[in-house]
Specification:
Length: 349
């Protein structure tokens, strides 16, 4: 066989190399840098090509494609959400993604994004809380202690100064796993036996559960004034975590309204219920938290620009690390119109 040319190769970041990159940079530093990258892309939001993600639903899960472009670079992510997967020893969420040059359409990098999604979701959550949470917040309730949980806890420590996390999960083994993973990470970790106990004294409440139904992780009477709710787990039609009455008492902040109205907690509200786009708070055209007593809610569903920022960040940090493999991914005949001849010559070589 002929050896591929240099343009045939696309750098590929495997799971192993992503883990090495996280360890090389340091997880809290990486979360902080990712949050800064996402924030700066939110600040130039109007420039992006935006579309609600393309979702293929089944009774037990969803498979989604999330594309966007800033005119120079294009990115997309493939991601699934299957809450029942963990019963078979599989993950609820897995992902991979690609970055490409708009000028040529050639891919720049292919990457695993299961780990990167956990990092970017946590970085986005903490970045939003930096703008919305009450001043001096130091305690966070973490309800749902699965795959995303430790990433969320560490992002809120690094970016918002959280010092105590109060863990609750319907499965005590998940709480045990999470508490063990966080034990030497500089956080006070409290194991709780109910959601009510977890939110005691918390200024920030993160809900990150997985169940394909209208669930009520928080009911109205559980939530006092002056808190910030970071609602991560409700991200599909028919999959929510908060009682509707909480939404009616909250200032609601979202990523991309056309997507969030279908997938987020606000699918429970009228289609014209007022919401604020987070990017407008960041670029100074909309108000964030109005007063200390307000309940702010980041109705997070995950938007393509966050994945774009994360992919571009990884691409920028790869140089000099060797933490990628070159994939022979793009057919590159010497004469661009002689694709067929390239096959013939390969047979003769
Ligand atoms: N908004 C985003 O950008 C974004 C990104 C990634 C994942 N998600 C969503 O976040 C959720 C969590 O993802 P994950 O990968 O950590 O899933 P996971 O399955 O690993 O963990 C979910 C945990 O929630 C627990 N749980 C389920 N019902 C509960 C309840 N009623 N009370 C308390 N705990 C409960 C489960 O026992 C499990 O430990 C999923 O719904 C996923 O779709 C959202």
């Amino acid at each position: 066989m002929l050896t591929p040319s240099q343009t045939a190769y696309v750098p590929f970041v495997s799971v192993e190399n992503m883990m090495r990159l996280v360890l090389h940079i340091g997880i809290e530093k990486m979360l902080t840098e990712l949050a800064a990258e996402i924030e700066s892309d939110f600040a130039r939001w109007p420039l992006f090509d935006k579309t609600a993600r393309v979702a293929s639903h089944s009774d037990i899960g969803v498979i989604e494609l999330m594309p966007t472009s800033d005119g120079e670079t294009y990115g997309f992510k493939y991601v699934n959400g299957h809450p029942s997967n963990t019963k078979q020893g599989l993950q609820t969420v897995t992902a991979f993604g690609l970055l490409a040059s708009v000028a040529t359409g050639y891919p720049l990098m292919l990457s695993e994004m299961t780990i990167l999604t956990a990092l970017r979701t946590a970085a986005t959550s903490a970045m939003a809380a930096k703008w919305l949470a009450p001043n001096g917040a130091s305690v966070m309730a973490m309800i749902g202690n699965g795959a995303q949980a430790e990433f969320q806890a560490l992002a809120f420590k690094a970016i918002c100064g959280i010092r105590e996390v109060r863990l609750y999960d319907i499965d005590p083994l998940a709480t045990e796993k999470c508490a063990n993973n966080l034990k030497d990470q500089g956080l006070a970790v409290i194991r709780c036996t109910s959601a009510e106990e977890a939110i005691m004294g918390a200024q920030i409440i993160t809900t990150c559960t997985a169940d394909k139904q209208y669930a009520t992780i928080l009911s109205d009477n559980m939530v006092g004034t002056g808190v910030h709710i970071n609602a991560v787990g409700g991200d599909c039609p028919g999959k929510t975590e908060l009682h509707r009455d909480i939404l009616l008492r909250s200032g609601i902040f979202v990523e991309y309204p056309p997507q969030t109205r279908i997938e987020g907690e606000i699918q429970q509200l009228d289609p014209d219920h007022p919401v604020t786009e987070l990017w407008q708070v960041i670029n100074g055209t909309a108000e964030g938290r109005s007063d200390a007593r307000q309940i702010t809610l980041f109705d997070s569903v995950g938007f393509a620009i966050e994945d774009f920022s994360a992919l571009r960040y990884v691409y920028s940090r790869l140089k000099g690390t060797g933490l990628f493999q070159n994939l022979d991914m793009i057919a590159d005949p010497d004469d661009p119109r002689d694709l067929f001849g390239m096959i013939l010559r390969a047979g003769q070589a």
